[in-house]
UniProtKB/TrEMBL annotation:
The lineage of its organism: Bacteria, Bacillati, Actinomycetota, Actinomycetes, Streptosporangiales. This is Transcriptional regulator with XRE-family HTH domain. Residues 1-48 form the HTH cro/C1-type domain. It holds the Pfam family HTH_31. InterPro entries: Cro/C1-type_HTH (IPR001387), DUF5753 (IPR043917). It comes from the Bacteria.
Length: 256
């Protein structure tokens, strides 16, 4: 196949495929290499695994590999490479917006970690948040269900977490948009499912991430991705605007 033929069958741009083949992309995604193996009919299990292991090793210098006991799969790698991150959370504050106290509280609630392990989870998640202040920071669009905020109670945990959300929302140096979806909005298309939609540059197709208690599910089919993109747009429309969200969060502190 020519580059043009292969790119057409993969529904990629010619540049995206060319950058992988010439080595311009030093750390290709596992999903991209799997797609190439399928296209080129590499079916031998040992050969496939050898190539995929090389791909994994190419990404091993990333900071999150030191926290493979905390993160499931390669989600931080996708997140770090994304140009735009759209996330909806029905019961928790999104990971990129959590305070250390909140991280500690929800980690303890899982009954999985204790002692030093909890601090390790805190360190890993705070490290993950550094992408929001990096030179090539992604645009983050977060919709938080009101239920997640109500679960904070009315003590110090709530005050610290809400103050942090306000600080991030008011920071003109980042590309973060926060919206609250009130319970009073009634039934909405989001239901009970949290999801993260990640868009990359033109070389990489978008991915939807669905987290589970043991691992994560990645959706890459164009139809499935478009369904979640429409879903997120509808959730945004049902939620408070960013300005009204800011007022809502500040009012939470007043009522405390």
């Amino acid at each position: 196949m020519t580059v043009e033929q292969a790119a057409e069958r993969l529904e990629w741009s010619r540049a995206r495929l060319g950058h992988i083949e010439t080595g311009r992309r030093k750390k290709p995604l596992i999903t991209d290499i799997k797609a190439l193996l399928d296209l080129y009919k590499v079916t031998d299990p040992r050969e496939r695994e050898a190539i995929l292991n090389l791909t994994r090793q190419a990404r091993e210098t990333a900071w999150w590999t030191s926290y493979d006991d905390v993160f499931t799969g390669r989600f931080p790698g996708f997140e770090a490479a994304a140009a735009t991150i759209s996330t909806y959370e029905p019961s928790l504050i999104p990971g990129l917006l959590q305070t250390s106290e909140y991280i500690a509280a929800i980690t303890k609630a899982t009954l999985i970690y204790s002692g030093d392990d909890i601090q390790r989870v805190i360190d890993a998640r705070l490290k993950r948040q550094e992408i929001l202040t990096s030179p090539d920071q992604p645009e983050l669009r977060a919709v938080i269900d009101e239920a997640a905020l109500l679960r904070l109670g009315d003590g110090q945990l709530m005050a610290g977490q809400v103050q942090h959300l306000i600080k991030v929302a008011e920071d003109t140096g980042n590309s973060v948009t926060i919206q609250v979806l009130e319970i009073g909005a009634g039934l909405h298309p989001g239901g009970e499912s949290a999801f993260v939609l990640m868009d990359f540059d033109e070389e990489t197709s978008p991915v939807v991430y669905l987290e589970t208690s043991t691992d994560g599910l990645y959706l890459e089919d164009a139809g499935e991705v478009e369904r979640y993109r429409k879903l997120f747009r509808n959730i945004q429309e049902a939620a408070l605007t960013p300005d009204r969200t800011l007022a809502y969060l500040k009012n939470m502190l007043v009522k405390r």
